[in-house]
Amino acid sequence: MKINTAEFIISNSDVKKCPTEPIPEYAFIGRSNVGKSSLINMLTNNKNLAKTSSRPGKTQLINHFKINNNWFLVDLPGYGYAKVSKSTKAIFQKFITEYFEKREQLVSAFVLVDIRHEAQKIDLEFINYLGESGVPFGIIFTKADKISKGSIQKHTAAYTKALHANGWEEVPPFFVTSSESEFGKDEVLNYIDQINQD
Ligand code: GDP
Protein backbone atom coordinates (compact mmCIF):
# COMPACT_ATOMS: atom_id res chain seq x y z
CA MET A 1 0.00 0.00 0.00
CA LYS A 2 1.11 3.52 -0.78
CA ILE A 3 -0.13 6.39 1.29
CA ASN A 4 -1.46 9.06 -1.03
CA THR A 5 -3.30 11.25 1.43
CA ALA A 6 -2.79 11.78 5.14
CA GLU A 7 -5.09 14.32 6.67
CA PHE A 8 -5.10 15.58 10.24
CA ILE A 9 -8.62 15.28 11.68
CA ILE A 10 -8.66 16.01 15.41
CA SER A 11 -6.65 15.96 18.64
CA ASN A 12 -8.33 15.40 21.97
CA SER A 13 -8.20 13.62 25.29
CA ASP A 14 -11.78 12.41 25.23
CA VAL A 15 -12.62 9.15 23.50
CA LYS A 16 -16.17 10.35 23.01
CA LYS A 17 -14.89 13.14 20.81
CA CYS A 18 -12.89 10.88 18.50
CA PRO A 19 -14.20 10.65 14.92
CA THR A 20 -17.32 8.54 14.60
CA GLU A 21 -16.78 7.31 11.06
CA PRO A 22 -16.75 3.49 11.16
CA ILE A 23 -13.49 2.89 9.32
CA PRO A 24 -10.61 0.72 10.55
CA GLU A 25 -8.20 2.32 12.96
CA TYR A 26 -4.59 1.58 13.94
CA ALA A 27 -2.98 3.15 16.98
CA PHE A 28 0.72 3.82 17.48
CA ILE A 29 2.09 4.02 21.00
CA GLY A 30 5.38 3.69 22.84
CA ARG A 31 7.74 5.29 25.29
CA SER A 32 8.54 8.93 24.74
CA ASN A 33 11.43 9.35 22.33
CA VAL A 34 11.06 5.85 20.87
CA GLY A 35 10.74 7.37 17.39
CA LYS A 36 6.95 7.33 17.02
CA SER A 37 6.58 10.70 15.32
CA SER A 38 9.44 9.93 12.95
CA LEU A 39 7.86 6.58 12.09
CA ILE A 40 4.44 8.11 11.41
CA ASN A 41 6.00 10.78 9.23
CA MET A 42 8.02 8.16 7.36
CA LEU A 43 5.00 5.89 6.80
CA THR A 44 2.87 8.78 5.53
CA ASN A 45 5.59 10.44 3.43
CA ASN A 46 5.05 13.64 5.35
CA LYS A 47 7.89 15.17 7.33
CA ASN A 48 5.55 17.23 9.46
CA LEU A 49 2.45 15.15 10.05
CA ALA A 50 3.32 14.04 13.57
CA LYS A 51 5.41 16.48 15.52
CA THR A 52 8.89 15.17 16.20
CA SER A 53 10.25 16.80 19.26
CA SER A 54 13.36 17.01 21.30
CA ARG A 55 11.23 17.37 24.42
CA PRO A 56 9.89 13.96 25.42
CA GLY A 57 6.30 13.73 26.58
CA LYS A 58 5.11 16.73 24.63
CA THR A 59 2.24 15.27 22.68
CA GLN A 60 -0.33 14.31 25.27
CA LEU A 61 -3.38 13.87 23.11
CA ILE A 62 -5.10 11.29 20.93
CA ASN A 63 -4.36 12.45 17.38
CA HIS A 64 -6.43 11.16 14.49
CA PHE A 65 -5.17 11.17 10.92
CA LYS A 66 -7.24 9.90 8.03
CA ILE A 67 -5.22 7.90 5.54
CA ASN A 68 -6.16 7.43 1.89
CA ASN A 69 -9.66 8.37 2.91
CA ASN A 70 -10.26 4.86 4.22
CA TRP A 71 -8.54 4.25 7.55
CA PHE A 72 -7.41 6.15 10.64
CA LEU A 73 -3.89 6.28 11.89
CA VAL A 74 -3.88 7.29 15.55
CA ASP A 75 -0.90 8.85 17.26
CA LEU A 76 -1.24 8.25 20.99
CA PRO A 77 0.75 10.00 23.73
CA GLY A 78 4.14 8.57 24.60
CA TYR A 79 4.17 6.91 27.98
CA GLY A 80 6.67 6.45 30.73
CA TYR A 81 8.10 9.88 31.00
CA ALA A 82 8.68 10.88 34.63
CA LYS A 83 7.51 14.44 34.15
CA VAL A 84 4.18 13.28 32.89
CA SER A 85 3.47 10.59 35.43
CA LYS A 86 5.05 9.43 38.63
CA SER A 87 3.77 6.06 39.67
CA THR A 88 3.65 3.01 37.46
CA LYS A 89 -0.10 3.04 37.89
CA ALA A 90 -0.34 6.50 36.47
CA ILE A 91 1.73 5.81 33.37
CA PHE A 92 -1.29 4.97 31.34
CA GLN A 93 -3.42 8.02 31.70
CA LYS A 94 -7.08 7.32 32.12
CA PHE A 95 -8.05 8.53 28.70
CA ILE A 96 -5.59 6.16 27.09
CA THR A 97 -7.05 3.17 28.87
CA GLU A 98 -10.49 4.44 27.96
CA TYR A 99 -9.37 4.68 24.37
CA PHE A 100 -8.26 1.03 24.32
CA GLU A 101 -11.29 -0.20 26.17
CA LYS A 102 -13.96 1.75 24.29
CA ARG A 103 -12.74 2.46 20.81
CA GLU A 104 -14.69 0.07 18.63
CA GLN A 105 -13.00 1.01 15.36
CA LEU A 106 -9.60 -0.02 16.71
CA VAL A 107 -8.29 -2.95 14.69
CA SER A 108 -4.78 -3.14 16.05
CA ALA A 109 -2.33 -1.23 18.20
CA PHE A 110 1.35 -1.02 17.38
CA VAL A 111 3.69 -0.89 20.35
CA LEU A 112 6.95 0.77 19.39
CA VAL A 113 10.19 -0.29 21.04
CA ASP A 114 13.73 0.86 20.38
CA ILE A 115 15.53 -2.11 18.84
CA ARG A 116 18.75 -1.26 20.68
CA HIS A 117 17.35 -1.77 24.15
CA GLU A 118 16.52 -4.85 26.16
CA ALA A 119 12.83 -5.32 26.86
CA GLN A 120 11.84 -2.60 29.31
CA LYS A 121 9.54 -3.25 32.24
CA ILE A 122 7.18 -0.46 31.28
CA ASP A 123 6.77 -1.79 27.72
CA LEU A 124 6.16 -5.31 28.96
CA GLU A 125 3.58 -3.99 31.40
CA PHE A 126 1.87 -2.15 28.62
CA ILE A 127 1.96 -5.20 26.34
CA ASN A 128 0.44 -7.26 29.15
CA TYR A 129 -2.22 -4.63 29.65
CA LEU A 130 -3.16 -4.87 25.95
CA GLY A 131 -3.27 -8.64 26.22
CA GLU A 132 -5.50 -8.54 29.30
CA SER A 133 -7.77 -6.03 27.58
CA GLY A 134 -8.02 -8.19 24.46
CA VAL A 135 -6.56 -5.54 22.18
CA PRO A 136 -4.76 -7.02 19.14
CA PHE A 137 -1.31 -5.54 18.68
CA GLY A 138 1.93 -5.79 16.78
CA ILE A 139 5.39 -4.70 17.87
CA ILE A 140 7.38 -2.24 15.81
CA PHE A 141 11.10 -2.12 16.48
CA THR A 142 12.40 1.37 15.71
CA LYS A 143 15.82 2.83 14.85
CA ALA A 144 17.14 -0.33 13.18
CA ASP A 145 19.76 1.78 11.36
CA LYS A 146 21.46 2.26 14.72
CA ILE A 147 22.55 -1.37 14.91
CA SER A 148 24.30 -3.53 12.34
CA LYS A 149 22.11 -5.51 9.95
CA GLY A 150 23.73 -8.67 11.21
CA SER A 151 22.63 -8.08 14.80
CA ILE A 152 18.96 -7.34 14.10
CA GLN A 153 17.94 -10.95 14.51
CA LYS A 154 19.81 -11.21 17.81
CA HIS A 155 17.92 -8.21 19.18
CA THR A 156 14.49 -9.40 18.05
CA ALA A 157 15.21 -12.90 19.37
CA ALA A 158 16.12 -11.44 22.78
CA TYR A 159 12.86 -9.54 22.77
CA THR A 160 10.90 -12.63 21.85
CA LYS A 161 12.57 -14.44 24.73
CA ALA A 162 11.54 -11.67 27.12
CA LEU A 163 7.96 -11.96 25.90
CA HIS A 164 8.02 -15.71 26.48
CA ALA A 165 9.42 -15.15 29.97
CA ASN A 166 6.59 -12.71 30.50
CA GLY A 167 3.98 -15.35 29.80
CA TRP A 168 3.41 -14.83 26.09
CA GLU A 169 3.33 -18.20 24.41
CA GLU A 170 2.79 -16.78 20.97
CA VAL A 171 4.76 -13.84 19.76
CA PRO A 172 2.69 -11.05 18.19
CA PRO A 173 3.48 -9.90 14.64
CA PHE A 174 6.59 -7.76 14.67
CA PHE A 175 8.26 -5.35 12.29
CA VAL A 176 11.79 -4.00 12.17
CA THR A 177 11.90 -0.40 10.97
CA SER A 178 14.10 2.63 10.49
CA SER A 179 12.67 6.06 9.83
CA GLU A 180 16.08 7.14 8.58
CA SER A 181 16.41 4.50 5.87
CA GLU A 182 12.69 3.68 5.48
CA PHE A 183 13.53 0.07 6.25
CA GLY A 184 10.38 -1.91 7.07
CA LYS A 185 8.01 0.68 5.65
CA ASP A 186 6.36 -1.64 3.13
CA GLU A 187 6.01 -4.45 5.66
CA VAL A 188 4.05 -2.26 8.08
CA LEU A 189 1.86 -0.70 5.39
CA ASN A 190 1.20 -3.98 3.64
CA TYR A 191 0.25 -5.59 6.92
CA ILE A 192 -2.35 -2.87 7.53
CA ASP A 193 -3.53 -3.09 3.93
CA GLN A 194 -3.96 -6.84 4.19
CA ILE A 195 -6.14 -6.54 7.29
CA ASN A 196 -8.19 -3.76 5.70
CA GLN A 197 -8.88 -5.96 2.70
CA ASP A 198 -9.91 -9.03 4.68
P1 GDP B 1 8.78 10.23 19.70
O1 GDP B 1 8.97 11.02 20.97
O2 GDP B 1 8.55 8.80 19.99
O3 GDP B 1 7.77 10.81 18.76
O4 GDP B 1 10.20 10.25 18.96
P2 GDP B 1 10.75 11.12 17.73
O5 GDP B 1 10.19 10.63 16.46
O6 GDP B 1 10.58 12.56 18.08
O7 GDP B 1 12.28 10.68 17.74
C1 GDP B 1 13.10 10.84 18.89
C2 GDP B 1 14.54 10.98 18.43
O8 GDP B 1 14.98 9.79 17.80
C3 GDP B 1 14.74 12.09 17.41
O9 GDP B 1 16.00 12.69 17.66
C4 GDP B 1 14.76 11.35 16.07
O10 GDP B 1 15.51 12.01 15.08
C5 GDP B 1 15.41 10.03 16.46
N1 GDP B 1 14.93 8.94 15.60
C6 GDP B 1 13.65 8.55 15.43
N2 GDP B 1 13.57 7.50 14.59
C7 GDP B 1 14.82 7.23 14.20
C8 GDP B 1 15.40 6.23 13.31
O11 GDP B 1 14.73 5.38 12.70
N3 GDP B 1 16.76 6.24 13.17
C9 GDP B 1 17.54 7.14 13.83
N4 GDP B 1 18.86 7.06 13.65
N5 GDP B 1 17.04 8.08 14.67
C10 GDP B 1 15.70 8.12 14.85
TrEMBL record:
This is Probable GTP-binding protein EngB. NCBIfam families: GTPase_YsxC. It comes from Paenimyroides baculatum. It comes from the Bacteria. Residues 22-198 form the EngB-type G domain. It holds the Pfam family MMR_HSR1. Belongs to the TRAFAC class TrmE-Era-EngA-EngB-Septin-like GTPase superfamily. EngB GTPase family. Keywords: Cell cycle, Cell division, GTP-binding, Magnesium, Metal-binding, Nucleotide-binding, Septation. InterPro entries: G_ENGB_dom (IPR030393), GTP-bd (IPR006073), GTP-bd_ribosome_bio_YsxC (IPR019987), P-loop_NTPase (IPR027417). CDD domains: YihA_EngB. Its cofactor is Mg(2+). One of its GO terms (molecular function) is metal ion binding. Necessary for normal cell division and for the maintenance of normal septation. HAMAP family: GTPase_EngB. The gene is engB. GO terms for biological process: division septum assembly.
